[in-house]
C-alpha cells in the first residue's frame, strides 16, 4: 500500500499540475475519455476498464471463475493471488498497448472491479458479479481482491481497483435508472456499507456510484453519502466515479434536476470526480451559470491526477520510475496463469449431495454420457465482464480428455437452455430421446444444467431474460427438469452439475446420486470438474448464498429491507443453507476454546478450535465462525459470519484454527445506524456451515460485562 508520505507528495504534485490547467482543460479531465494536455506531459487516457475475474474485453487474457465462484472458495489468499495475476496481465497488456499507441476503451489500468454489492435476493441478474449475500464475506473477499490488483509497492499502484456500486444497488435491473432504494439506517450500516468499508481499509483507489437513488437522493449526487459517509466516516481518499450514464439519470428518470448542466454540477459538488457518460461536457455551461466553481472542479481533477501519478502514467515529478513498466507482454496468458485458473476453479466447486457414488474410480473405464444444455457451453465458462481465453475446456471437453485413457464418452444436448426445442423447425422435446438413449447405453450420466449470462445478467446484456436481466423465479428454465427426470428415470447412476451464478431450485436434481454446484468456472472449468468427479481432490467450496425453495419464500424484490432475507434474517426451510458444502472425507470439530469466558465491553477474545480429518482423504476444510447475540435489545440477525479460514488437513491429522474476535465483531447495529457492544451473553458457533436448523456445530458462551 502506498505510504502516507508518498500520498502527500503525490497530492502536492497533482495540485501543481492542475494549477497550470485552464477551466476547459480541467473539465475534459473529468470525463472517462480524458483529453491529452501535451504541454503538461499528460496523454489521452480512457478510464473505463473491467477486470471482474480477469482482464476483460481487451482480447486474450486468463479467465478465472466468476466472482460468485471465487466467493465460494472462502479463501482470501487465493483471491488475492488471482487478482495479482490479473494485474500482472493488465500491466503486460497495457505496456504493449502503449507501445502501439492504443489508448482506447478497455486499454487502461483503472479497473471498475470488484462488485461488492450484497446479493440480497436470488432474482438479481447481476448477483453473480458479487461475492454473495453476506457483508462480512463480501468485505473480506473484496479487500483481498483490491490488495491483489493494486499490489504492495510503497509508491506505485500496479493497477487501480474500484469498489462498486455505492450504495444499496442489487436489483431490480429494469428500473435501476430511476429506482429509489428505501433503506433504513440499520440496514445501511449493517448490510450495505460494510463491504465498502473493508475495501477502503484495503486502500481501494476508486469507488463507483450506483444508478439508483437511495432514500430520495441519486447515489452519484449525494453529498451526505459520498462526502459524509464514504470520505468522512470511512476515510476514503481516492477518486469517485459514476456508473455509465448515471449522471444523465438526474434530469432523466430521477427528475431531480432539469438540465445536463444542473446534473453535472450536482454530481461534482457532491464529490463525484469522474463521469462515465456525457453530462460532464456541460460543466463549462454550469460554470458560466454559477452552478459550480472552477475550484470545485479542480478538486476533482486533483484526485484524478493523483490516481494517474500513483499508476506511473503521469510524471510524479520525483524521478521515480514505475517498476511495473517492465512487465513484458509474455506475462499475459501463461501456462502458469492457466494452471492458477484451474486451481481456482477446483476450489470454487461445491458438492451439494453425494450418496457415496463420488469420487469415481479412474481404474474403472466407464462409459460416460455427458448430457445437457450446459455440457458443451462456452458461455457458462466465461460469466460476464470477461476476457477471451486462448483455450476453453467445457464440461464435455473435460471428459473427452479421458478418452485417451480408455473411457468411452457420449454427448447429448438433451434440450435447449430455456426454449422447448433446439432446432427452429423441430417439434418440442427434439433432443430428449437422444439424451435418454445416451443414458441407457452408458454406465453413468453427467447432466449439466443451469443458467448462463444470457439469462441472468445486467440490463441490456442478458438479452434472453424475461425481466431485463433479472430472474422471475428460481426454477431451471425450459425443459431442464423434464430432462433431469428422464435421465434419472433410466435407473443408472446420475451426477447433476448445475452451472449458474445464483441459487436455483434443484429439487429435481435431489433424485440424482450426486449434485455439484459449479458456478461459471472459467476457462479451465471442464478439467476442474473431471478432477473433482474422479477424486483428484476433495471438494471444499461453500455456498456464499442461500438456496431457497421458491421466490414465494421471499419478500418483494423491490423491498430493500433485510427482514426475511439471507441466512441472517430468514428462518424458514431452505434447499441448501449459506456456508454449506460436502467433502470426500469427514471432519471432527473438538470443543471450542476461548481465551476468556468473560470479557469487558471494548475487549477482544481469541476463539480456537481443533479440527481433525477423521476420513481417509487429504482435504481442505472451511472453518466458519458465527456469532449470535443472545440478549439483544433490538432486532438482530439470527447469526452472523464473523470469521472463516480455509485450511488443508491431511487424512488422520489435526489443525488448530484461531479467530480473533474484536469489539467490531461483537457489535450490534442499532436502528439509527450506530454500533454498540451490549453487555450480556453471546453464543459462538464454529463448524463447516452456518448454524442452520439441526446442523451440528461446536459452540461456546461468551459473557460481556460492563466493567
Count of individual domains = 3
Percent of residues in beta strands?
15-25%
Which class do the helix and strand fractions yield? alpha/beta
**Could you name the ranges where pLDDT drops below 50 across 5 or more consecutive residues?**
none
Biggest β-sheet strands, sense, barrel: 6 strands, mixed
CATH architecture title of the largest domain: Alpha-Beta Barrel
Oligomer: single chain
Please give the radius of gyration in angstroms: 26 Å
In short:
With 707 residues, this protein is of the alpha/beta class. It folds into three domains: 4-331, TIM Barrel (Alpha-Beta Barrel), CATH 3.20.20; 344-569, Glycoside hydrolase family 3 C-terminal domain (Rossmann fold, 3-Layer(aba) Sandwich), CATH 3.40.50.1700; 587-705, Sandwich (Immunoglobulin-like), CATH 2.60.40.10.
